[in-house]
Amino acid sequence: MEKSAILSALTAEVEQGRLIFPTSTHAAIRINRALNDPDCNFEMVIKFIQLEPLLSAKVVAIANSVVFNRSGKRITDVRSAVNLIGVRMVRNLATAVVVQQLAAAQVRSEMVTQLWQHSAHVAALAQVIARRITKQDPDTAMFAGIIHEISWFYLLAREKYYPGLVDENMTSSWNSDEDLEDETELECEIKIGTAILKALSIPESIIDSIVYLWRGCLAFPPTTLGDTLLFADQLAPVKSPFMLPSNQTGYSIANIDLLIDEETLSNILMDSKMEINSLTQALYV
What we know:
Layout: H1 3-15, H2 26-35, H3 42-51, H4 53-63, H5 78-85, H6 87-104, H7 109-134, H8 138-147, H9 150-157, H10 168-175, H11 183-199, H12 204-215, H13 225-235, H14 262-271, H15 273-283
């Protein structure tokens, strides 16, 4: 099946409001929506987290990362973890669990593992870059990094309905330079991804920043959340198996000094190495 035909069929599903998530994600989506309800109080947050083992593990892991746990005192329970990282971060992590559940539904384990590892690295780097360079909100940057590949997880989840979606030839076609010449295909990809993010109640400002990343148009100097994500995407040591336009515009570690001088960048990455490693491990729980 041709890539253009697959995109047209998936876009038609989106336009008809037919986003089809795997059964394994339904509980995580319900908990995500419940946590985002304005009437959800602290005790209800604790209860909902405890209903989802993966979310519980991730909340405790993040609370024990060096970014949040400066004292080094080990956190071993959900209540203490939420007190430390805050309800807002819990809501962000609940969405991350939906992404990870999408990944768990896949049979192409190597590709899914690479995609999730890439997302975790981008999230961790975005948190540091936001705090040290672009002066964006670090928690928002980390959250956006976690979910920026969600459209690919969704497409992988739909593979069984579209045979050949990610076989060797198709994967090459996603990544080919010729694809960038077809704005219609890029717009279809953006439309699908945007619909998924809206279905998960992601704020418009974050959706706009992720679309900015997908389009791959980096500003000089980097100042916005979109710039933060693009910068993190370039620095991530694990790359996505599906390349974005931003990966094909010529930016790389070799010429990243166009964004920030090499010495400053080196110092930031060195000073932040422990934070990045800690966050990446926690997000990959």
